[in-house]
Amino acid sequence: MANSHKRETARRIKPKAAFIAGPLAVLATGAVVAFGVIGHGGTDTVVAVDGGAANIGSAVRPQTISRSEQRPPLEPKLSPADRAMQRSAVAKAIHDAREKQWTTTALNLWTRPDRKAAEVGEVKTSTHVLVTGRALDGRQEIVVEGRSRWVTKGYLSAKKPATNPADMALDFKPCGDMSVTNGLVPDMVRAYEAVCNAFPGQVSTYYGLGDRPEHSTGHAVDAMVYGNTDLGYKIAQFVQAHAAELNIYDIIYRQHIWTPVRASEGWRLMPDRGSPTANHMDHVHFGVN
Known about the structure:
Strand order of the largest sheet: 11-12-16-13-14-15
Largest sheet: 6 strands, antiparallel
Radius of gyration: 22 Å
Number of helices: 5
Distance between the termini: 34 Å
Helix content: 10-25%
Low-confidence stretches: 1-7, 9-70
Mean pLDDT: 77
Order of helices and strands: EEEHHEEEEEEEHEEHHEEEE
């Protein structure tokens, strides 16, 4: 995200070895099983455990920013009186703030709305924050520990976001890059819109029609999550929870496949196809009948 006015998520360090719980599968016996991955350096070992899915911190790929974007624009120097007036306006906005809204994703906190802003922390998903009502240059102002902070605009909601993928509502309004829907069958368009609206701005790239099985006929879409396994599992669980409504044929993520016709078998391990992308380690594949 070279443009600093797009959503910024917090940067986290991935542990060298960690257990990651995967999508849930309900067996015919009623038992709940979650597939997980234990990472050791560059290798992954797939395991199955009883229990639910854990919340994992999101990872963010390094961003490339041009020199022109790094250079802040020139601004006129303010007189002492103007600076005092500016501080007074900020104090008044904080004092008058009454409305609270929920963050719909993790957001970086900035000291000001322009390119001279300094990053000073993060606010987590589903945090209830005080909103001043001021917005500028694609960011909006909130109050954190009594101080003015700015976050990317568009990721605050009056309604608390659902944390369980199964509880997330279906929304089929046009969403994201609509060129993704070119050549897709109607049910696949609906499934893409449902995922795009459920995870707004969180998936950088979707791939639709292409020279790949299911994709060549417009029956599948790939949601590229790269190293963000937490997001990948949530998308897989969301599609799985709404499989009947979305007319889902299959879901594939991290070398595991789930299909409604064999739901009693849960998530099934797939043969190694030779590369991380071929094994769906960096994207969630979901297709329709």
